[in-house]
Specification:
Elements lengths: L1 H4 L8 E2 L5 E9 L3 H14 L5 H7 L6 E4 L8 H4 L4 E2 L8 H12 L5 H20 L28 H4 L17 E2 L6 H14 L4 E4 L2 E9 L2 E9 L3 E12 L20 H8 L3 E3 L4 E8 L11 H5 L3 E3 L19 H15 L4 E4 L5 H7 L1 H8 L10 E10 L2 E3 L11 E3 L4 E2 L11 H23 L10 E2 L11 H15 L6 H18 L7 H22 L17 H4 L4 E3 L1
Parallel strand pairs: 2-3, 2-9, 3-6, 9-16, 15-17
Antiparallel strand pairs: 1-18, 4-5, 7-8, 8-9, 10-15, 10-19, 11-14, 12-13, 13-14
Bound molecules: flavin-adenine dinucleotide and succinic acid.
Length: 577
C-alpha cells in the first residue's frame, strides 16, 4: 500500500524550455463556484484594466487572471446544485443557530473558527451575488412550509438589510433547525449561481478564460508553486507560469459507481497537490446523498433534499414510513443518518431501493418548486404527483481534500485551494446540506483576495524556470482504460461505500495494488489516462484513511467499529505528499 501513497512526482516527462508558455499573475484552475468567485475577487484586488475594446486597439497588456477548465466552463458540480445555499437571512434565524447545526453535523471535527467565519460572511456574499444579477426565488412562488419554524432565537447578526426579511423563499434541509436555504429557478440553484458568476467573469477585463484545458501537474520550483503544466486538445502541452496558483478543481465523486457528480469530478487537483507535496486530510469522509433516482439505465439524478424540506416522505418497499424509527428529525435528520437508514431498510426488505413520496403535495406546487426533477422523472414515465420516486444513496461530496489554513494557503508557497477540493475544516465528518455553495462563495472570494494581495506584494514580473523531467519510457501495453475506470468505481462502491469493514477494505487494497503496478508506471498522453492515474491515487488514499479510522463518525460508517470513539479518534487523519 505504501506504493499507492507514494506516487511518481509528475505524470509526464517534459522540458519547459521546449514548450509554449503563457504568463499570468494569478492562475485559477477550475470554473465552478469556488474558481469563479476566486477570480472575481482577485480581479477586484488587482484593480481595473482598460475595457476590452480599448485594450485590443492599443495592444495593452493582457488580463492578470487566467481561469482554466478541463471541460466547458459550465460543466461541473456547481451547475448541478439543486437544493440551494444555506444562509442566515431571516429574523427567525441567527448565526449562532446555523453555526450550532453545522458543528453538530460535523461531529466534533469542524474547525469552529472557520464555521463561524463562513456563516457570518454568507449574507455579504449573497448580497454581492444578487448585485451581479442572481435571481433567487421569492416567497410568493412557494407554499407555506409544513415544518415547524419554532420560536425565533435571539438575533445575533443577519445584515441589517435583511433584518426585515428579504422576501426570498427559505426552505429547510436535513440537519438545519431553521428554514434558511435560498434557491433559484426552483431546483436549479447551481445554474443560477454558475451563470451569474460566468457572466461577471466574461465582462471583467482582468480575467481571461480557457476551456477544454486540462491541468496535468503543478510546477514546484525552488520550493514554491510557479504555475502548471497543461494540455489542450488542439494546442497540446504548454506551460502557464503564474505568480500565484489557486486550485478550485472540485470533488472526486467519480471514484464511485453510483454518484451524483459531474464527469469532471475525478479529483485531479487533489491528486496534483498531493504529488506536489501538499497535505491532504479527512479523505475517509465521503458523503453519500440519501436520495438519487434509481432507475436502471438512468444516470443517478439527484432528488434534492429540499423535497424532504417541503414535506416529502421516505417509504420502504412495503409502503411504510421508516425515518421516525431512526431519528427524531425523521426525513430531515442529517444526511449520514438518512443514508444509513435507507441502506438498512433496503437490507431489511431485500430490495434495491426505497421510495420518496410527494403524492400528498399539490401538483402545481411540485411543478413550480421542482421543475427539473418533475421533468427528469417524467422522461422515465414517472408522474411524481401520482407515483412514488425510486431512490437510493450515491456518492455526493468529498469532505476531505487539500488541507488549507485560514487564509486558504496549502503549505506550498503561492499555492491556494478552495471549494470542494479544499479541506478548510468547515464540514468536519459530515457536511450540512447547502453549506457547500456557501463555503465556495466565501472561501473562493478569500482565496482570490489572498492570491491577488500576494501578487501585488511580489516585486518583478512572473518569470519562467528551467525544469526538465525525464520519464523512463515504459512500454505502453494496450490498456482498456475505460474498463479499469469502471472496475475502480465498482470496487470503491462495494468496498468503501456507505458501509465499510476490514474485509472489504483489504480486498480494495489488494486489487488497487495490482492496478497500481501496471497503470501508474505508464506515461499517458490524454486526459483519460491522467484522470485514471489521479483516481487510483485518490482511491488508495480514501481506502487507507478508511482503514485507519477504526470507529464510526459522520459519513464514515464502519460496520466492524459501529461506535464513535472520541478518546482515540477525535482527530484528523492527514497524508503528506
Ligand atoms: P466544481 O463546481 O465541481 O468545479 C470544478 C472545476 O474544476 C470544473 O470547472 C472542472 O472543469 C475543473 N477541473 C477539474 N479538474 C481539472 C483539471 N485537471 N484541469 C482543469 N480544470 C479542472 N451544494 C450546495 O451547497 N447546495 C446544493 O444545492 C448542492 N446540490 C448539489 C447537487 C449535485 C447534483 C451535486 C453533484 C452537488 C451539489 N452540491 C450542493 C455540492 C456543490 O455543488 C459542490 O460541492 C460545489 O459546487 C463545488 O464547487 P467547486 O467550485 O469546488 O467545484
Ligand atoms: C440537495 O439539493 O439535496 C443537495 C444539497 C447539497 O448537497 O448541499
Amino acid at each position: 500500500m505504501d506504493d499507492v501513497i507514494l506516487p511518481r512526482r509528475y505524470l509526464v516527462g517534459f522540458d519547459t524550455a521546449q514548450l509554449p508558455e503563457l504568463f499570468t499573475e494569478v492562475l485559477v484552475i477550475g470554473s465552478g463556484v469556488a474558481g469563479l468567485s476566486a477570480a472575481l475577487s482577485a480581479a477586484e484586488v488587482a484593480g481595473p484594466l482598460p475595457t476590452r475594446a480599448s485594450s485590443a486597439s492599443s495592444g495593452a497588456h493582457p488580463a492578470k487572471i487566467l481561469i482554466v477548465s478541463k471541460d466547458k466552463l459550465g460543466e461541473n458540480n456547481t451547475m448541478r446544485a439543486q437544493g440551494g445555499i444555506a444562509v442566515v437571512l431571516s429574523p427567525g434565524d441567527s448565526f449562532r443557530c446555523h453555526i450550532k447545526d453545522t458543528l453538530e453535523a460535523g461531529q466534533g471535527l469542524c474547525d469552529q473558527k472557520v464555521v463561524k467565519e463562513v456563516i457570518r460572511n454568507g449574507p455579504v456574499r449573497i448580497k454581492e451575488l444578487i448585485g451581479l444579477g442572481a435571481n433567487f426565488d421569492r416567497a410568493v412562488n412557494s407554499v407555506p412550509h409544513g415544518t415547524g419554524h419554532g420560536p425565533p432565537p435571539p438575533e445575533d447578526g443577519p445584515l441589517a438589510l435583511y433584518r426585515s426579511g428579504t422576501g426570498l423563499d427559505l426552505t429547510k434541509e436535513g440537519g438545519h433547525s431553521r428554514p434558511r436555504v435560498i434557491h433559484g429557478r426552483g431546483d436549479s440553484t447551481g445554474m443560477v449561481v454558475e451563470e451569474t458568476l460566468l457572466e461577471a467573469v466574461e465582462g471583467n477585463t482582468n480575467i481571461d478564460t480557457m476551456d477544454h484545458c486540462f491541468a496535468i501537474d503543478l510546477l514546484v520550483v525552488e520550493g514554491a508553486c510557479r504555475g502548471a503544466l497543461l494540455w489542450h486538445k488542439q494546442k497540446g502541452r504548454f506551460i502557464v507560469w503564474a505568480g500565484e496558483t489557486i486550485l478550485a478543481t472540485g470533488g472526486c465523486g467519480q471514484l464511485y459507481r453510483e454518484t451524483t457528480n459531474s464527469v469532471v469530478a475525478t479529483g485531479d487537483g487533489t491528486a496534483m497537490a498531493y504529488r506536489a507535496g501538499a497535505t491532504l486530510q479527512d479523505m475517509e469522509f465521503v458523503q453519500f446523498h440519501p436520495t438519487t433516482l434509481y432507475i436502471a439505465g438512468a444516470t443517478r439524478a439527484l432528488i434534492t433534499e429540499a423535497m424532504r424540506g417541503e414535506g416529502a416522505i421516505l417509504r420502504n418497499k412495503w409502503g411504510e414510513r421508516f425515518m421516525p424509527r431512526y431519528h427524531p428529525m425523521a426525513e430531515l435528520a442529517p444526511r449520514d443518518v438518512v443514508s444509513q437508514s435507507i441502506l438498512h431498510e433496503m437490507q431489511l426488505t431485500e430490495h434495491t431501493h426505497v421510495y420518496l413520496d410527494v403524492t400528498h403535495l399539490p401538483r402545481e406546487f411540485l411543478g413550480s418548486r421542482f421543475p427539473h426533477i418533475c421533468s427528469t422523472c417524467k422522461s422515465f414515465h414517472i408522474d411524481i404527483s401520482k407515483e412514488l420516486i425510486p431512490v437510493r444513496p450515491s456518492a455526493h461530496y468529498m469532505m476531505g481534500g487539500i488541507k488549507v489554513d485560514a487564509r486558504t494557503r496549502t503549505g506550498i508557497p503561492h499555492l491556494y485551494a478552495c471549494g470542494e477540493t479544499a479541506s478548510t475544516g468547515m464540514h468536519g465528518a459530515n457536511r450540512l446540506g447547502s453549506n457547500s455553495l456557501l463555503e465556495g462563495l466565501v472561501y473562493g472570494h478569500k482565496a482570490g483576495r489572498e492570491a491577488s494581495l500576494s501578487s501585488k506584494r511580489r516585486h518583478g514580473k512572473v518569470r519562467p524556470y528551467p525544469l526538465e523531467v525525464s520519464m523512463e519510457a515504459k512500454r505502453l501495453r494496450r490498456l482498456d482504460l475505460e474498463d479499469i475506470r469502471d472496475s475502480l468505481k465498482s470496487l470503491m462502491w462495494r468496498c468503501a461505500g456507505v458501509e465499510r469493514d476490514e474485509k472489504h477494505l483489504k480486498e480494495a487494497t489488494d486489487t488497487l495494488a495490482q492496478w497500481w503496478e501496471y497503470v501508474m508506471d505508464k506515461e499517458f498522453h490524454t486526459p483519460e489516462g491522467w484522470e485514471l492515474q489521479n483516481m487510483i491515487l485518490l482511491a488508495g488514499l480514501v481506502i487507507r484513511a478508511t482503514q485507519d479510522r477504526k470507529e464510526s463518525r459522520g459519513a464514515h460508517y464502519r460496520k466492524d467499529y459501529p461506535q464513535r470513539d472520541d478518546r482515540h479518534w477525535k482527530r484528523h487523519i492527514t497524508f503528506r505528499g
